[in-house]
Amino acid sequence: MSTLKAVRGTRDLLPAETGLWNRIEATARSVFSRYGFGEIRTPVFEDTALFARGVGEETDIVSKEMYTWEDRARAQSEKTQSLTLRPENTAGVVRAYIEHKLGETGQLQKLYYIGPQFRRERPQRGRYRQFSQIGAEVIGPASSGSESPLRDAEVLEMLASLLDELGISGWVLKLNSVGSASDRPKYIETLRAALMPVVGQMCVDCQRRAETNPLRVLDCKVPEDQPIIDALPKIADSLDADSRAHFAAVCAALDAAGVPYERDHRLVRGLDYYTRTTFEFTHGGLGAQNALLGGGRYDGLSELIGGPKAPGIGFAMGEDRLVLTLQAQEAAKAVLLDTYIAPVGEVQNPAALSLARSLRRSGLSVELGDGAFRVKKSFEAADKVARTIVLFGEDEANSGILTVKDFSTGIQSKIARADLAAALLSSRNK
Ligand code: HAM
Questions:
Q1: What is the pLDDT averaged over residues 315-338?
Q2: Which of 17, 132, 245, 387 has a CA 20 to 30 Å removed from the CA of 49?
């Protein structure tokens, strides 16, 4: 019988990696709570129409990448329904905002989520068919201040702080404005007209995009096409006065907060709901899939899916890519346990368990060896999983003085049992 494997584009995360995932999620939750965000959990599958209307029929995500199926009726009272595994979470959050009438509170809603998303993309490093996003949305009626450029700047400042806190160095914030709902179609027409005389010299993908979705030409990476793309009209020149002022105010607030950014005229993003501010944080260590996260404003999304006016802004970070970046930086050294207790001789096992119990109850992480192991084997095992080793033989049991070796310094010391927990805790913070 052939062996069964995880489906292409999906992965198992084993304990050697999940520690880092948990640390990233804990840091994100802590930062989000400092900025007044609360968690929202929406279903993993939704009515297909939500994504068709919200994200846009013409986008790659909806037209090519969704996992969609007809869900059969189980009873006469039920209808068959087209369902889709969520390819992103913003549409689901806005649906929930509408369904639970969160706008009626009059308050700005600040919601975050962590969870799996599904896109049938060509798998490669940093691109999977099941991947995890950590995202957040700020949304509310216009009277709650949801349209203010200060909200955009605050979200970006929070992201800069979160990446710094995670220990990700070398990120670049790319910023643009795609203008109002009417600026974008105007620009698409300008772009289509400008592409006409030059598209024949471009790659085949661009020739197709110029017909179907001219904005996607701006994502082309083919080196020969770059001078042509750089000479195309910029969306900045199609913005109305309000959108220009909004963008200038976002930039001014970022300048005041000291958050560095680059203007990227080509950043129009692949989802249709964006208006005004769009952004990505990229990282050079990621290779082709270099976007750590992306987001922007979506002032008309609620109306697109049948809700009241509810301007909003948000982002989603690719958690898989955060993990890759941290691993590559070696900032993510395996999290080591505080200590490994090595009983010397099986007779010491019960007393060693008692010592492990008291250290664990003091908040220390402890691995317990086995007195049947030779001391050399205990040292080798300990060195892989813990910062220190505590030897627990007959002498130690009789004297209450334990031998402790710190692997990072190589120093071996004698510590009274009563002082051991405090000594291990203080060496953890060095
Ligand atoms: P997105 O740019 O499609 O935006 O995805 C956001 C991030 O998810 C990307 O920057 C990337 O890090 C990660 N990502 C996307 N696809 C994959 C994949 N196949 N494998 C691994 N990681 C991936 C959105 O999803 C919007 N909902 C963001 C948003 C929130 N805009 C406003 N609010």
A1: 85
A2: 132
- β-strands 312-318, 339-343: how paired? unpaired
Torsion of CA 128, 132, 136, 140, to 10 degrees: 80
* Residues 45, 67: Cα–Cα separation, whole Å: 10
d(CA 68, CA 339): 49
274 lines ligand 1 (CB under 6 A): no
Tell me if 120 CB under 6 Å of ligand 1.
no
Distance CA 152, CA 251 (A): 10
> Which residue puts its alpha carbon closest to atom 9 of ligand 1?
293
More confident residue, 58 or 296: 296
The DSSP call for residue 8 is: T
Q: Please state at what angle helix 417-428 crosses helix 349-361, rounded to 10 degrees.
A: 50
CA-nearest of 111, 120, 96, 118 to 155 is 111
Ligand 1 nearest-atom number relative to CA 87: 25
Cα separation, 275 vs 273, whole angstroms: 7
Q: How far apart are CA 30 and CA 264, in angstroms?
A: 30
* SS3 state at 187: helix
CB neighbour list of residue 62: distance below 8 Å, 6 or more residues apart: 51, 52, 55, 56, 87
**152 Cα distance to chain centroid:** 18
Q: What is the pLDDT of residues 236-251, one digit of tens each?
A: 999 999 999 999 999 9
Edge-to-edge order in the sheet of strand 81-85: 45-47, 81-85, 68-71
Please list the residues that pair with 115 across neighbouring strands: 133
Residue 420 to residue 185: CA distance in whole angstroms? 69
What is the DSSP-derived secondary structure letter of residue 337? B
d(CA 212, CA 206): 10
Lowest mean pLDDT among 55-59, 90-94, 138-142, 367-371: 55-59
Residues 55/271, Cβ–Cβ less than 8 Å: yes
Looking at per-residue confidence, does 338 or 219 come out higher?
338
Q: Flag the least confident range among 75-84, 259-268, 311-320, 336-345.
A: 75-84
The tally of CA atoms less than 13 A away on the side-chain side of residue 173 is 24
- Tokens 């962590």 sit on residue: 114
Report the mean per-residue pLDDT for the chain: 94
Q: In 265-374, which residue ranges form alpha helices assigned H by DSSP? A: 301-304, 319-329, 349-361
Report the separation in Å between the CA atom of 62 and the middle of ligand 1, taken as the mean of its atom positions.
14
- The tokens describing 429, both together, are 């913070």
Q: Which residue's CA lies nearest to atom 21 of ligand 1?
A: 127
